Each structure stands twice: as structure tokens, then as C-alpha cells.
Amino acid sequence: MQRSYNWEIVTSLLAVDIGNSNITIGAFDDQELTATWRLATRETRTVDEHAWALQGVLRSKGVEPDSFDAVVICSVVPPLTEAYVDALAQLTTVEPLVIGPGVRTGIRIHYDRTQDVGADRIVDAVAAHQLYGGPLVVVDIGTATVFDAVTADGDYIGGAISPGMEIAADAMFRNTSLLRRVELIAPDQVIGRSTVASMQSGFVYGFAELIEGMLARFKMELNPDAPEDVTVVATGGLANLIAEHTESFNHVNPELTLVGLRLVHEMNNA
């Protein structure tokens, strides 16, 4: 059945964040994020299948792929980077900017091997510092739980990586005989009265405590004279869930990476 739309989304920049679990897509009209989409990450898809899936989700909100003036891509899944570039070539004549070595980001990276820092971590740091200032810590709560430290001057100085809730849940399910998969929601109390509630408590409240503890340590190292002045920005697919059970976050911005992609694109096209 033909679908009709009673709105029009004006687009100029398509931002694509290819993560380990999801591909997050955003459409920008100038500085305004006008629409977002999310696809499951599937490395086994062909280029044609990626193009078909991307075209389908864009059109679900009345957006044509060839309506964009520019495209920017951030990827932590190398096999999908080239596949998405090729897929986009089927849908638009615009050559995408792929975040990587040689791309201007506006921040200095203090890391033993700068090429080892995930592109999404740098993009998040760019966006967080631009939006909220520093010193700051970005905590990305997704497939992994990632902490990144940025100085007041906007220098990226490193971070920490721990398993995410979904990875922990999958590992527990695979390696135990009597425990099953559970929905990642917070039970009413920390002391679970059932196996399901006990697991949910361990995941949600346990990770909230992990994050609070790591943030306290980060603040002391990043700004020892005034750790309370360090801003904490949470992002990622599970940020809102954890935010309900901690007071450690100053800002929650699930679209931080998309905003960072826009900012980096602007720096490289000024």
C-alpha cells in the first residue's frame, strides 16, 4: 500500500555511526538534527543489501537518499566501512567523509598509538567539549562501557573500556546452565526475590555502581584540585536506563556521536 506523508524533512548532511551492535543514522538540516534511524549491525549483508536497508529506513520518514549535500561516516567495524561507502555510492553521488587518520578533529590526542583510538570516541570527545566545555568525562554505555577523558583545553588524554551490560548478559547466558536471558530493566529493589530480578539487579544496579566508581577515579586523575568541576556526559543506547539510577551524570545526550560527526564534517569543509 502506498504510504503518504504529511511532513517534509529538509536534509543537507547524512551522518552514519557504524557501531558493533547498531548503525545509527542522523539527518541534519544545517545544525538541526531532523531525524534519526537505527539499524542492527550485520556484517554478513552484501553491499546491495546495505543499500536496500539504508534506502528503506530513510524513506520510512519520507527522506530520499539523494537529497543530501554531504555524508560523514564514523565506524568501529572495519569490514562495514568500505561496504557502506559502496552502498552509499549506489544511492547518492556525494563522496562521504570517513573519520580516520588525516581528518581534522580540532583536538589533540594524547595516546600511545593515536590510530588505536576508536573514531567514535574521538567524535564523542569533540561533541562533548564543544557542547559542554571541559574538563569532562564521556561515558558511552553501549556494547562496551567506555570512558573518555578530555581536558579543559579540549585535549583527549585517554580512557577506559569495560564490557557492556549486553555483553555481560550474553556471557552469563552462554556460560551457565540455569540462567536465561532477561530484559535489561531495573527491578523495584536491589535485593532480587527471583532469579530474573536478581540478574536484572546485578546488571542495572551493578553497572551503575561500576560507572559511579570509575567516574570518581577519573575525576580525581583528570582534575585532582577540583574533581567536582569535571563534567560528565553520558551517551549510548543504555545511557537513559543508567541515568535513572545514578546522580553522576551532568548531561545525557544519546545523539552525541551524530552531533560530533556534524562538527567534524564542518571542520573539514570550512
UniProtKB/TrEMBL annotation:
Which residues are recorded as binding K(+)?
Answer: 140
What are the binding positions for substrate in this chain? 111, 118-121, 195
User: What is this enzyme's catalytic activity, as reactions?
Assistant: (R)-pantothenate + ATP = (R)-4'-phosphopantothenate + ADP + H(+)
Q: Where does ATP bind?
A: 17-24, 143
Pathway participation: Cofactor biosynthesis; coenzyme A biosynthesis; CoA from (R)-pantothenate: step 1/5
CDD domains cross-referenced by the UniProt entry: ASKHA_NBD_PanK-III
Q: Pfam families in the record, alphabetically?
A: Pan_kinase (PF03309)
Q: What is its main location?
A: cytoplasm
Q: Per its Swiss-Prot or TrEMBL entry, what cofactor is needed?
A: K(+); NH4(+)
In the record, biological process GO terms are: coenzyme A biosynthetic process
Q: What keywords appear on the UniProt entry?
A: ATP-binding, Coenzyme A biosynthesis, Cytoplasm, Kinase, Metal-binding, Nucleotide-binding, Potassium, Transferase
Assigned EC number:
2.7.1.33
InterPro entries assigned to the protein according to its UniProt record, in alphabetical order:
ATPase_NBD, Type_III_PanK
The cofactor note reads:
A monovalent cation. Ammonium or potassium.
State the active site: 120 (proton acceptor)
- Any single Gene Ontology cellular-component annotation: cytoplasm
**Keyword Nucleus in record:** no
Which principal EC class is assigned to this enzyme? transferase
Q: Which GO terms describe its molecular function?
A: ATP binding; metal ion binding; pantothenate kinase activity
The protein's location, in the record's own words, is: Cytoplasm
The text of the family note is:
Belongs to the type III pantothenate kinase family.
Q: How does it assemble?
A: Homodimer.
Listed PANTHER family:
TYPE III PANTOTHENATE KINASE
Free-text function comment from the UniProt entry: Catalyzes the phosphorylation of pantothenate (Pan), the first step in CoA biosynthesis.
What is the designated name of this protein? Type III pantothenate kinase
Q: Which organism is it from?
A: Candidatus Lucifugimonas marina
Q: Which gene encodes it?
A: coaX
